[in-house]
Amino acid sequence: MSIRLIVGLGNPGPEYEQTRHNAGFWLVDNLANSLPGCRLQRESRFNAMVAKTRIAGNEVWLLEPLTYMNRSGQSVGTLARFYKINPDEILVVHDELDMVPGVAKLKKGGSSGGHNGLKDITSSLGTQDYWRLRLGIGHPRSLNLQQAVADFVLHRPRREEQVLIEEAIDKSVRIIPLVCEGKMDVATMQLHTA
């Protein structure tokens, strides 16, 4: 099963652009910039930034919901139903508190782990059975910060964390062609051992 829709999660607007919660947007932006002629454009019927492109010879949609994180499922569900994309053909890229900056992991299914964007997508799709690319941002406690989680994800990473997150994004972008070909085992091995 190949991936036909890659969703980056984040919040729209300049005040959120550089925040940890926008790591999914960062990856999709980097991916779009790496593909010839690929430009995300506002698509009002999906309430999202959208691009149609080709990756590894396959037609793939890129999506950044403009609904704010907690309502991401509206955009994802609407586009998936419109183009008849099954949940297991969807890859959702998101920030992950339970992994340190610099780590990226691919997995299919599982709980939302308290991530409101994932909760809403699961609700909209009616299943947890979609792929996730988790980008580690660390947890305030593991980074020795006295910050509430909600506050932490809506702030910029420290410079050293940003460098590590960007490295993980670069590594992740390199395995996207394998993901789009459905070579999940190879992609996972390359991402987890790189």
Task: Describe what this molecule looks like in 3D.
This protein is of the alpha/beta class. It has one domain: 3-Layer(aba) Sandwich (Rossmann fold). Helices cover 36% and strands 21% of the residues. It is built from 6 helices and 7 strands, in the order βαβββαββαβααα. It has a 7-stranded mixed sheet with strand order 2-3-4-1-5-7-6, with helices on both faces. The longest helix is centred in the C-terminal third of the chain and has 22 residues. The mean pLDDT is 96. Its EC number is 3.1.1.29. It is an enzyme of class 3 (hydrolase). Monomer. It catalyses: an N-acyl-L-alpha-aminoacyl-tRNA + H2O = an N-acyl-L-amino acid + a tRNA + H(+). Hydrolyzes ribosome-free peptidyl-tRNAs (with 1 or more amino acids incorporated), which drop off the ribosome during protein synthesis, or as a result of ribosome stalling.
Integer tally of domains: 1
Largest sheet: 7 strands, mixed
Low-confidence stretches: none
User: What is the CATH H-level superfamily?
Assistant: Peptidyl-tRNA hydrolase
* Beta strand %: 15-25%
**What is the alpha-carbon Rg in Å?**
15 Å
Compute the separation of the termini in Å.
Answer: 24 Å
CATH class: Alpha Beta
Spatial strand order of the main sheet:
2-3-4-1-5-7-6
Strand elements, count: 7
Summarize the amount of helix as a percent range. 25-40%
Number of helices: 6
Principal-axis shape equals: globular
For this structure, the CATH topology is Rossmann fold
Give the SSE order as H and E letters. Answer: EHEEEHEEHEHHH
Name the CATH architecture.
Answer: 3-Layer(aba) Sandwich
Structural class: alpha/beta
What average pLDDT do the residues reach?
96
Organism: Massilia yuzhufengensis
Keywords: Cytoplasm, Hydrolase, RNA-binding, tRNA-binding
Active site: 21
Site (Discriminates between blocked and unblocked aminoacyl-tRNA): 11
